[in-house]
Amino acid sequence: MTWTEYTHAKHFGKGIYRPYSDFIADALLVFDNMLAENRELAHSVISYPSRDTLLIKGDQISILTVSGSSHRHYPLFVTIDWNEFWTQKENDFLENNPELTKSATRLTAEFLSDHLKSSYSFENPIIIIFPSVFQVGQDKDLKVLREKIVTEVAGLLREHELKNYMDKIEMEKPKEIFLSHKSADKALVREIAKTLEAMGHSPWLDEDKMKAGANLERSIRDGFITSCAAVFFITPNFKDEGYLATEIDYALAEKREKGDRFSIVTLLIPDENGKFGEVPQMIRQYVWKEVNPIEIIRTIVEALPIRSANMVWKA
């Protein structure tokens, strides 16, 4: 979409007209050129001119907000003056953030995101604050600054879309749940695995995942790579030795690599005499919980970094 089409597009709201639409269109052109370097990413991006867009215009700094999705209506294009939108004066805001007159940056303001969602139906909005370099005339310094800001805004849009794309790719990968246990507790863990599977999860249980003749350690490592969580069933039978120690090492490595996308779930389960096992030293830094068998499934599901699969009617 050219700037002329963008300016005259059918829309809701007060519109975004020149010179503000020129700035946004220039940023989107640079953004499109950046996307050309990654075809898969480019195909995943929803057209920006089809998204709801709100420009909060100030004398020195402005804020561009764009919804993360498009809706089945003409997009909302709105320009609002800073003083109409904010209770805090622009100069007061700049006193605490003087660097904003020189470069563009993502603005992480939860209250603003909530307002955009509730008042304008924005979804997963991107919010960028930048110097108000719309009309620069013949001033060479301002022209250079405008070009710099246009490129920075485009780069921030690309970072936002790349993160969304990588999140999507990550979610499409297998999300197994590694079940670490001693052979003596196999019957209990097998039933838990069956229950998790019936709920739409994919438990990793050695007897199901490892083919005859497979390299044991390599299979266990692969199991952790495809998992989003490791559940350690700590009973009096559980001892931090052999492959259990290796599994703890792998779990810690995945936690460092995946961060919040990987959970270490440590469950202390009593035996028939009510006796609990001992949590291995290496995973004591993570929260563990004493549970009765009836609480195991709920505790695991609550600790996972993913939600259960969507419910569908049985065939």
UniProtKB/TrEMBL annotation:
Keywords: Receptor. This is Toll/interleukin-1 receptor domain-containing protein. Residues 173-304 form the TIR domain. InterPro entries: TIR_dom (IPR000157), Toll_tir_struct_dom_sf (IPR035897). It comes from the Bacteria.
